[in-house]
Amino acid sequence: MIVRTLASVIDTPAHVKGAAFESRRILLAADGLGYSLHDTLCKGGTEQRLEYRNHIETNYVIEGMGEVENIATGEVWPLGPGTVYVLDRHEAHLLRAETDLRIICVFTPALTGQEKHDADGSYPAAG
């Protein structure tokens, strides 16, 4: 059984900060589950271009307001508490945070916790 708190992740190497986000990586590849679980904060007034070519990401919004845009189609969906969006086809997308957003994210395959976004917004393939 794994029991972990968000507080135990804050200010550790599993707490990754960028200009527009903070990712508190609660479960990672080392936990051996095949997926990773992240509690992510996106700063209000920001836009991020992301494209996870090597991962499927499921996102569940629990706080805040924003929108996600599929870059290929131009489709835009509003985001708010209770909304889930899944990047099941590795879609390039824009994530816009109107207010601070808090999103629970699940990545398959699991992230190690040390990944950095590359120029297209992807993480490298699991190695």
Automatic annotation (TrEMBL):
Task: Note whether Lyase occurs among the keywords.
Answer: yes
Keyword annotations for this protein, in alphabetical order, are: Lyase
Q: What class of enzyme is it?
A: lyase
Q: Which InterPro entries match?
A: Ectoine_synth, RmlC-like_jellyroll, RmlC_Cupin_sf
The record ties this protein, via Pfam families, to: Ectoine_synth
Q: Does the keyword RNA-binding apply?
A: no
Specify the pathway: Amine and polyamine biosynthesis; ectoine biosynthesis; L-ectoine from L-aspartate 4-semialdehyde: step 3/3
This entry's Enzyme Commission designation comes to: 4.2.1.108
- On the tree of life, the source organism's domain of life is Bacteria
Q: Which reaction does it catalyse?
A: (2S)-4-acetamido-2-aminobutanoate = L-ectoine + H2O
Write down the Gene3D superfamilies for this protein, in alphabetical order. Jelly Rolls (2.60.120.10)
Q: What is the stated purpose of this protein?
A: Catalyzes the circularization of gamma-N-acetyl-alpha,gamma-diaminobutyric acid (ADABA) to ectoine (1,4,5,6-tetrahydro-2-methyl-4-pyrimidine carboxylic acid), which is an excellent osmoprotectant.
Q: Which family does it belong to?
A: Belongs to the ectoine synthase family.
Report what the protein is called: L-ectoine synthase
Organism encoding this protein: Paragemmobacter ruber
Ranked from the top, the taxonomy reads: Bacteria, Pseudomonadati, Pseudomonadota, Alphaproteobacteria, Rhodobacterales
Q: Which gene encodes it?
A: ectC
